[in-house]
Each structure stands twice: as C-alpha cells, then as structure tokens.
C-alpha cells in the first residue's frame, strides 16, 4: 500500500495472508486474500502457478495477522489449503490478468475452519451487478510495498482510501486503453498519492454501502504504484457472484 497508514487486522478482520511453502519449508508471503465464508478465501488467480493442480500443499493461509514477520498465536488462525480454484477463464495472454479471481478452500481442523473473533470475521459480498458511482471512496488493505521499487514489503498491515474511476476514463488512451475489460475497474486518488502495490494483490477493496462494508474488488494489477495516469486495477467481484456460489456451494445473501 502506497500513501496509506498502518492498520490493525481488527479493523480489517477478513484480511487473509497467503503463504507459499518453500522447499526448505520457509513460509514466503505470496498474496493477500479475504475471508468470505468460514472455509473460503477469495483472492487473485495470478497468485498461483499456471497449473495449480496438486499444489495445495505448497500453500498456507493465516487469518488475524497484524505483522508479517511476527506470530501471535493468541489471535492468529492458521490453515492448510484443501483446494485451489482458479477461474477457468483467467487469461494473461494480453498481459492484463482478465478474470483474475480464485478461491481457496481452507482445510478444517476438527470440522471447523475460521472461528469468528475480534481479529477474524467474514466480509460481505455485494449483490450481483451492483455498481457504485465514479468518485465513490473505498478502502484497500494489504502488506504490499509502500513504494514501487522497494525490495521489501510492509511488515505491518496498511490501509488506504481510493476513489472509483469511470470506465471510460480508465479506458482512455492516456490511461490503460483497451487493457481494461468488463471484468475490471480502476481506482486512484486525484493526486495519485494512494494505491495498491506489489504484494497487495489478492487482497480486498471494500466499500461502505448502507452502513455495511462489501468487497467490491480484488486487488489485481497496475503499471507501477501511485503513478500519474496509472490507477490500480481491480477484479470486479459483482461479475462473479454466480461463479463463487457455484464453486463454494454456498449462497451469499445480503439481507439481515
Ligand atoms: C502487484 O504487483 C501489483 N498499483 C498490485 C497492484 C498494483 C500494482 C502492482 C496497483 O501485485
């Protein structure tokens, strides 16, 4: 996150950290994610190798994590991954991560996955095709770099506010032109000071509607970070309600 502030996981309790387990069994931070149901984490497809079949055991997920390189077992919950589901139409042949969405099924221990606590809870999914107006302010969070070009990621969870950009603006040739598909939207700030950056991808963009926070975006890509005319690009979650329900076998309602 560029231009943001340190945040506590208690204020983003759905944030998941996805680790890749190296051959020497080191946990290498890979991507962010979000808890959408007790056994399901939503993230970006590009976080996983081309053929992820059989690679589940190479990943683990931590919920309730404040600091990447510190472990607080009194609040963190750790899971192995039972299943990685990459969107069938994920496509990076044009270099734009189309359909950049994936689901991780957490492996239950003693029939339970995530347990709700002040540091761990699910985020709501918005109703299908629900759209917000350009200029609307939403929040992003992650452990990604604080500046493009740094060699290290953030030690602590950070958050920033960004504004949704109209599609025709983001598709303008001064911006990203035809790289932006209907499965994406863009967000930035007027002074280009706040943005997601390397290491934030897979993590959630949440927007407040009617006093509730809904996840409208998955942090996906961008040309650099917080660069003029180069907004952050997000996977449009409202295009995938049916896909998410199909794959998880769950129904997500927004009432109540
Ligand atoms: C990345 O590499 C990345 N500025 C994510 C988001 C953005 C840039 C890069 C948006 O994961």
In short:
The protein has two helices and 13 strands.
Question: Which features does this protein show?
Answer:
5% helix, 33% strand, 6-stranded antiparallel β-barrel, 6-stranded antiparallel barrel, mainly beta, binds 4-(aminomethyl)benzoic acid, globular, 256 residues
Question: What can you see in these coordinates?
Answer:
This protein is mainly beta. It has helices spanning 167-170, 241-248, and strands at 5-6, 15-21, 27-37, 40-43, 59-63, 77-86, 102-106, 137-142, 158-165, 184-188, 204-209, 212-221, 232-236. A hairpin with a 5-residue loop joins strand 2 (15-21) and strand 3. It is globular and about 50 Å long. The protein starts with a strand and ends in an 8-residue tail after the last helix. It binds 4-(aminomethyl)benzoic acid.
For the biggest β-sheet, the strand order reads 8-9-10-13-12-11
Element order, helices and strands? EEEEEEEEEHEEEEH
- Assess the beta-strand content as a share of residues: 25-35%
What hetero molecules are in the model? 4-(aminomethyl)benzoic acid
Mean of the pLDDT scores? Answer: 96
Structural class: mainly beta
Q: Determine Rg (CA atoms, Å).
A: 17 Å
Strands, total number: 13
The number of helices is 2
Overall helicity: under 10%
């Amino acid at each position: 996150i560029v231009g943001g502030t340190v945040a506590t996981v208690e204020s983003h309790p759905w944030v998941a950290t996805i680790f890749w387990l190296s051959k020497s069994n080191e946990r290498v931070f890979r991507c962010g994610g979000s808890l959408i149901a007790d056994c399901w984490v939503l993230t970006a497809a590009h976080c996983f190798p081309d053929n992820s079949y059989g690679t589940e055991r190479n990943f683990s997920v931590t919920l309730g994590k404040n600091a990447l390189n510190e472990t607080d077992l009194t609040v963190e919950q750790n899971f192995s991954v039972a299943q990685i589901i990459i969107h069938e139409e994920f496509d990076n042949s044009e270099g734009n991560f189309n359909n950049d969405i994936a689901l991780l099924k957490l492996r239950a221990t003693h029939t339970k996955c995530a347990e709700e606590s002040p540091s761990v809870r699910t985020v709501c999914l918005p109703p299908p095709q629900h759209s917000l107006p350009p200029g609307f302010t939403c929040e992003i969070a992650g452990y990604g770099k604080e500046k493009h070009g740094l060699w290290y990621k953030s030690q602590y969870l950070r958050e920033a506010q960004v504004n949704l950009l109209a599609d025709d603006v983001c598709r303008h040739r001064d911006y990203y032109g035809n790289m932006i598909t209907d499965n994406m939207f863009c967000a930035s700030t007027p002074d280009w000071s706040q943005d997601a950056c390397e290491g934030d991808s897979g993590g959630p963009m949440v927007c407040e509607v009617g006093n509730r926070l809904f996840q409208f975006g998955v942090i996906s890509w961008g040309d650099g970070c917080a660069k003029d005319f180069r907004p952050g690009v997000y996977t449009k979650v409202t295009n995938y309600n049916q896909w998410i329900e199909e794959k998880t076998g769950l129904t997500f309602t927004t009432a109540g």
